[in-house]
C-alpha cells in the first residue's frame, strides 16, 4: 500500500512538472471575445486547447490582458506567448522571439450604405470620422497606436473592441469603421440581413501576417511552436478552426 501511495504521488507530480506557458490575449474578435469578467472565448482559446492536445511537453493556459498593456505585460513576463500578432504592431523584433507567419488577414474600411456612396468614398479615409479600437495599429494612423497621436492626426473615436466599433457604426456614431476582415466575415455569416446596410471597401487599411510572439525566457522555442502548428495543419486540425471563425490563410476583402 505504501509503494502504491508513492507511485500515485510521483505520477501526480510528473503531471505538474510540465512547464506552464501562459498565453496572453486581449479582446480582438474573432480571436478573443470577452463574454464576462472571467469568461473568454474565440480562436485563440480554441488554438490553445489544440496545442495542449498535440503535445505533452508543456501546458498552455490563456491569460487575459488588454491591447494597450500587452507589450509591458509580455516584457514583464506576466505571460510568455501571444498568438495572432504582427511584427509591425509596435513589437521590438530584436528582443522578442517570433515564429514565421502562419495566418493572413487584414483590416478594411466599412461605412453605412447610402445613396450616392460607392468605393470612391474610401479614397481618403482620413477625411472621414473614423471608428477604431484603442491600442490597435492602423495603416491610416501610420501604425502608431498612441491615442493622443491618433486623435491629433485624425477625427477618430476609439472604442474598446471591434465588436463595439461595428455597433458604433450601425448607430451612426461615425462615418467609417476600421474592421478586421475575419470578424466582419463572421458577423455577416451570423447576421446576413446586415450586409445590405454596409458598404465595404475593396482597399485594405492594412494587410497583416499573424505570428506568435514569445518572451525571450519562454520555456519553448519558436521552432517548437512552429512544429506543433505544422503538426496540427498536417492532421487537418487548423482548417476547421479557420473556417469556424471566418479567417483565411490569405484573406481578401
Write the layout of secondary structure elements.
Elements: H1 2-16, E1 20-25, E2 33-34, E3 40-41, H2 43-54, E4 59-64, H3 70-75, E5 81-85, E6 97-98, E7 103-112, E8 130-133, H4 147-153, E9 156-159, H5 162-170, E10 176-180, H6 181-190, E11 198-214, H7 222-234, H8 238-244
Parallel strand pairs: 1-4, 1-5, 8-9, 8-10
Antiparallel strand pairs: 2-3, 5-11, 6-11, 7-10, 7-11
Account of the protein in words:
With 253 residues, the protein is an alpha/beta fold. The chain has eight helices and eleven strands. The protein has helices spanning 2-16, 43-54, 70-75, 147-153, 162-170, 181-190, 222-234, 238-244; strands spanning 20-25, 33-34, 40-41, 59-64, 81-85, 97-98, 103-112, 130-133, 156-159, 176-180, 198-214. The longest helix is centred in the first third of the chain and has 15 residues, at 2-16. The model is unreliable at 7-15 (pLDDT under 50).
